[in-house]
Design a protein that fits this description.
With 282 residues, the chain is an alpha/beta fold. It has a 6-stranded parallel β-sheet with strand order 1-4-3-2-5-6, sandwiched between helices. It has a 3-stranded antiparallel β-sheet with strand order 7-8-9. The longest helix has 16 residues, at 124-139. The protein has 10 helices and 9 strands. The chain binds adenosine monophosphate.
Length: 282
């Protein structure tokens, strides 16, 4: 496996791969890899001839008071994990490689950037869309893999890919969870022991919601209240949002029917965690 930090070098390598008609599987990440990321890499390994993982902590998707500075960084460990999985290339550019001096073009998926995480993280999805568009242009992957963990991001990337006609297939992979149900996240490393046990309230409340839907509850407001009450019982938790939305456009749902997304963002102490559940009701 080779670690490449320069865009021109990567483009030259990938040009050769494309000439040889190799299928390029691409997994964009911000590093501090865990089993959630590695599941995407495994999917890429199964589906593609050449697997490329990018590790880039994208400054433009962090707000001024967010955790860009303290975001976990561990390139050598990440490289070790990816080597074991048979990845071909890691692209680990510095910020100047992605945003050279004078960089002035941004991609915005307008409507899908507004609700849910977009309300409290203005500019976040503009940063995400811009970096993914730039990486797609550099890599020109055949298939790109994203996690359902970041449900709004997944929907937005699909929309951007369709709107801008990027010739890439987008695959969304299921959420990988810890044994107790907590969705794996690089930010789980911020949690103290007490916070870590409190954090299972996110998954538990989603499971309870799934239970009452299975029992026939279809009223979105009642389901949201139940989730909120379950989370509020946990002293270390503070709700940012609990929403039930359409998967196609993230608009709020009143009565549950078809495929819907239950999405939530909750602070456990100072750490903001997100989780979600896709529900299909015939
Ligand atoms: P990140 O490094 O947090 O930007 O994540 C890189 C990719 O991994 C994104 O497509 C995420 O949605 C995905 N991902 C992160 N955590 C998980 C998880 N627990 N299960 C599945 N995919 C995940």
């Amino acid at each position: 496996m080779e670690v490449i930090s320069k865009t021109n070098k990567l483009k030259a390598v990938l040009r050769k791969a494309r000439c040889a008609s190799l299928k390029i599987g691409f997994v964009p990440t911000m590093g501090a890899l865990h089993a959630g990321h590695l599941a995407l890499v495994q999917r890429a390994r199964e589906a593609a001839d050449l697997v490329l993982v990018s590790i880039f902590i994208n400054p433009t998707q962090f707000g001024p008071n967010e955790d860009f500075e303290k975001y976990p960084r561990n390139l050598s460990h990440d490289v070790e994990l990816l080597t074991r999985l048979g990845v071909d290339y890691v692209f680990a550019p510095g910020p100047e490689e992605i945003y050279p001096k004078g960089f002035d073009t941004f991609v915005e998926v307008k409507e899908l950037s507004q609700p849910l995480c977009g309300e409290t993280r203005p500019g976040h999805f503009r940063g995400v869309a811009t970096v993914v568009a730039k990486l797609f242009s550099i890599v020109q992957p055949t298939i790109a893999f994203f996690g359902q963990k970041d449900a709004q991001q997944a929907i937005l990337i699909k929309k951007m890919t369709a709107d801008l006609d990027f010739p890439v297939e987008i695959k969304i992979c299921p959420i990988v969870r810890e044994a107790d149900g907590l969705a794996m996240s690089s930010r789980n490393a911020y949690l103290s022991v007490e916070e870590r046990s409190a954090a299972i309230v996110l998954y538990r409340s989603l499971q309870q919601a799934a239970g009452i839907i299975l029992d026939g509850e279809r009223n979105s407001a009642s389901i949201r209240s139940m989730i909120e009450a379950a989370i509020e019982r946990e002293a270390l938790a503070r709700i940012e949002y609990v929403e039930i939305v359409e998967t196609k456009d993230l608009t709020p749902v009143e009565k549950i029917r078809g495929e819907i997304l239950i999405a939530l963002a909750v602070f456990i102490g100072k750490t903001r965690l997100i989780d979600n559940l896709l529900v299909s009701v015939p």
